[in-house]
C-alpha cells in the first residue's frame, strides 16, 4: 500500500469504520482516533465548520426541509448492509462514509456521513443517492 501522501495526491480515501456499528457492538468503547484534545475542539461560536449555518436562511420552505430531514433519518435507520450499497467509492467525494481519510492514524469525526452533490444537478452521482425520497425533496427545494 502507498503512503498517506500518495492517497492524498490521488484524490482517494481510505475506508473508515462505521460509527453506528461501533456503538451498536460496544457502546462503551471509543477508539483512540476519535478522541480530541480541548485545543482541537471548536470554540463556542466557531462556525468555520459550517454546522450551525448549513441550512439557515436559504429560503427553503419548512415542509421541504422536513422532508429532507425525514429522508435523512430514514436513511440512517437502514441496516448497515443497505447503507453500504451507496458507500463512498475510494476515488469519490459523494456517497455514504468518510472522505479525505489519508492515514490509518488520522483523527476522525465521531459521525457517519452521507455526502451528496445537489446543485447544479450535473454534479449529482445517482449511483450514491439513497433509496429514500432524497431526490424528490431536493428537486422540490431547487425547482420551487
Q: What fraction of residues sit in β-strands?
A: under 5%
Order of helices and strands: HHHHEEH
- The percent of residues in helical segments reads 25-40%
**Distance N terminus to C terminus?**
48 Å
Number of strands: 2
Radius of gyration: 17 Å
Helical region count? Answer: 5
Low-confidence stretches: 1-10
Mean pLDDT: 74
Largest sheet: 2 strands, antiparallel
Large-scale geometry: globular
Structural class: mainly alpha
Kindly report the spatial arrangement of strands forming the biggest sheet: 1-2
Structural write-up:
The chain has 144 residues and is an all-alpha fold. The protein has five helices and two strands. It has a two-stranded antiparallel sheet. Helix 3 (62-77) packs antiparallel against helix 5 (134-142). The longest helix has 16 residues, at 62-77. The radius of gyration is 17 Å and the shape is globular.
Which key terms come to mind for this protein?
5 helices, 3% strand, 144 residues, mainly alpha, two-stranded antiparallel ribbon
Short description:
By secondary structure, this protein is mainly α. The protein contains five helices and two strands. Strands 1-2 form a two-stranded antiparallel sheet.
Secondary-structure topology with pairs:
Elements: H1 4-10, H2 19-25, H3 62-77, H4 80-84, E1 95-96, E2 114-115, H5 134-142
Amino acid at each position: 500500500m502507498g503512503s498517506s501522501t500518495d492517497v492524498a495526491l490521488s484524490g482517494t480515501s481510505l475506508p473508515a469504520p462505521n460509527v453506528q456499528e461501533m456503538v451498536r457492538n460496544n457502546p462503551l468503547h471509543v477508539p483512540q482516533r476519535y478522541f480530541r484534545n480541548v485545543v482541537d475542539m471548536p470554540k463556542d461560536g466557531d462556525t468555520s465548520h459550517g454546522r450551525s449555518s448549513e441550512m439557515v436562511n436559504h429560503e427553503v420552505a419548512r415542509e421541504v426541509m422536513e422532508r429532507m430531514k425525514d429522508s435523512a433519518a430514514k436513511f440512517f435507520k437502514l441496516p448497515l448492509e443497505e447503507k453500504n450499497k451507496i458507500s463512498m467509492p475510494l476515488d469519490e467525494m459523494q456517497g455514504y462514509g468518510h472522505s479525505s481519510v489519508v492515514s490509518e492514524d488520522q483523527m476522525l469525526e465521531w459521525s457517519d456521513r452521507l455526502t451528496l452533490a445537489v446543485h447544479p444537478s450535473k454534479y449529482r452521482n445517482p449511483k450514491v443517492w439513497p433509496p429514500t425520497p432524497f431526490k424528490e425533496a431536493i428537486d422540490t427545494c431547487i425547482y420551487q
